[in-house]
Amino acid sequence: MLDQMEGSRAVAEAVALCRPQVICAYPISPQxxxxxxxxxxxKSGRLGGCEFINVESEFAAMSVAxxxxxxxxxxxxxxxxxxxxxxxxxxxxxxxxxxxxVMTVANRAIGAPINIWNDHGDAMSQRDCGWIQLFAExxxxxxxxxxxxxxxxxxxxxxxxxxxxxxxxxxxxERVDIPEARQxxxxxPAYEPRQVLDVHEPVSIGAMVGPxxxxxxxYLAHAxxxxxxxxxxxxxxxxxxxxxxxxxxLVRGYRSEDAEIVVVxxxxxxxxxxDVIDELREAGIRAGVLGICCFRxxxxxxxxxxxxxxxxVVVLEKSLAVGIGGIVATNVRTALAGFAxxxxxxxxxxxxxxxxxxxxxxxxxxxxxxxxxxxxFLDLDRAVVERALERExxxxxxxxxxxxxxxxxxxVAARIA
Amino acid sequence: xxxxxxxxxxxxxxxxxxRLLAPEERSVQADMARINSLNSGHxxxxxxxxxxxxxxxxxxxxxxxxxRLIAANATGCLEVFSTPYPETxxxxxWIHSVFGNAAAVATGIAAxxxxxxxxEVRVVAQGGDGGTTDIGFGCLSGMFExxxxxxxxxxxxxxxxxxxxxxxxxxxxGARTATTMAVGPQPGNCFGQGKDLPRIAMAHGIPYVATxxxxxxxxxxxxxxxxxxxxxxxxxxxxxxxxxxxGHGSHETIRIARLARETGLFPxxxxxxxxxxxxxxxxxxxxxxxxxxxxxRFAHLFGRPPRIDIIAGLQxxxxxxxxxxxxxxxTD
Lengths: 417, 332
Ligand SMILES: Cc1ncc(C[n+]2csc(CCOP(=O)(O)OP(=O)(O)O)c2C)c(N)n1
Ligand code: SF4
Ligand SMILES: [Mg+2]
Prior knowledge:
Chain A is α/β, with parallel strands linked by helices. Chain A has helices spanning 7-17, 32-44, 58-70, 81-86, 88-96, 121-125, 139-156, 181-187, 214-243, 269-282, 300-307, 327-335, 357-368, 382-394, 401-408; strands at residues 2-6, 22-25, 51-54, 75-79, 102-107, 132-135, 160-165, 173-177, 204-205, 251-254, 261-265, 287-292, 294-296, 312-317, 342-347, 375-377. The A-B interface holds A 21-22, 24, 49-51, 53-57, 59-60, 63-73, 75, 89-90, 93, 97, 197-199, 201-210, 212-213 and B 67-70, 72, 79-80, 83-86, 88, 90-98, 100-101, 104-116, 121, 138-139, 141-142, 145-146, 148. Strand 9 (204-205) of chain A pairs parallel with strand 2 of chain B. The complex binds thiamine diphosphate, iron/sulfur cluster and magnesium ion.
């Protein structure tokens, strides 16, 4: 059914269609609207057979999901940013225990300085915690990926994070196609756990494993994610058969087959990039885009196949690994090892900084004429950073960065030497 | 108290003459058909109060629930010694997630059981004092406040034993641990405000809160059964001496636990809806010195010169407990 609604509401509708049995949540912008909508559905009785638990922290949210899932219930939660970091210990634990929890991450920057706007710093910080990470490009895809996520999680006994850009998607009103319940039921069988806390067949879950077998357990966790690389395209195909549209998969190219320069990105910025590519094509530049939908497991082969014939690859990243640079770019470089493709990392949109078409076009042109550095920062205010760097050069112990910058631009009156 | 206390006259061995009781009055532990939820073969130290307390409590909970019980366990000695790879001592469905989340994991299990229509299956969460009063405190308080249908059992050995006897917020003043060394002008743990978890639990207004020690098996079993007769959040705080951390003989675990009660240092009581409804009376209060002396963690209090001031401070705590809970049996 086509309807105009907020992205958060669309995700809530999708989650409800998946018939979760336990939902637990702790509020954090920009995740709030999703769980508020679900809470209302449970309270009003529209979503039956479901317990909604208002927990006291994200750590508790993930822990409640762990208990619920281990006891055989389909469990869901959502978070963002500081909340994701607050649950980190439980995140690793859920993955280690092989519990198919599905969680929305409404991507948001991590502080300090505190910032509620979108970037991918939160999800990227958890890329190696053992969860599958899917990134939605549009609200429709966010909706669709949640349905696929439960299927994938339960099939492989691996938790899945569905990442969607905070505010840009969560708070945008768009037309979406809400599937029929019977379609979702046909796609997603009831949750039948492989191992469950059952009084008739007692098991001990989460026991200690020593050096005798820890390596093997970790190896198998990796092998399972590699298996997911095969399943994800299958489930995307199966999804298409029932729902009649494409969603998910590993990677998606746009005008990239014959491209000499390809921009790689994740999430909602792909839409803007496609518009820019169309303009550049008209101007005679053979440019294309590769969208990464599945970031963990890393689709090494698919990325290599898509990019090996390009001359230049520009990875546009909404996160920064302080001390090295691009995270996605590092992964892309691994995929292209042995190929003569120049890979540039361009950090963009941190903390909600707008990514404009003109800046993107200039970035691609710089890639074409060879003037793009290995690591670049889109629309960085050079005057501000130069002032701060100058101070760093002049004074020892120059103090906290954010406060100094704020003072420079006159936002706060704090006196910091 | 609904429960009729049976007074046993001590023989010096602290055994209880079950033969003298009618079968229905006998302890769960005396029953040949007891479940042994925490079965033999685990790796606890000799004389471990926590191993004893856990078996007593979980066996009693099993009896109350007709063997329909699931446990969530915090990280700590109990978790580590009960599940040495690739074995387990647990005869019940059991899950260990991390150190600070046992209460929340139990909430999740209870929620799953509810939606799946298994109302007859009950849930316990359990952890050490560190996992309860420190790192798991947030999750525990949240579980209480929501009144989730979980019995939380804290096995209090008054320090982080699993990591080598470091101080927790349940460590008593004056006690030596690896992080409250017996040196300087204030040797051992400081005198703070204390963190009295049973009273904090009561302040949440949950249906049932009780304390017990491994020295009084029948009282402990009664309290588990009583706790299981309620729905909602319940809290049981069991004192479980640790021969390793406390520095007493492994054969002294029960005697030390009994002294903790008889000095008034560990008040044994129960409370419903935030109000105390029953206390275990002390027949003849024992000076705290008698409890402190056999434990090496207090040895520095008895050096030359002895730290009379610290001992007096501990006696004050005991006396306050005796007054607060009315522990003295005025009829005796
Ligand atoms: C987050 C975290 N911090 C620290 C630890 C290390 N740790 C494991 S068990 C333990 C002490 C447990 O103490 P307590 O809860 O009192 O149980 P006990 O071993 O005394 O029975 C500590 C500090 C951990 N496992 N996880
Ligand atoms: S250290 Fe103490 S609590 Fe831990 S197993 Fe040994 S006796 Fe028990
Ligand atoms: Mg302890």
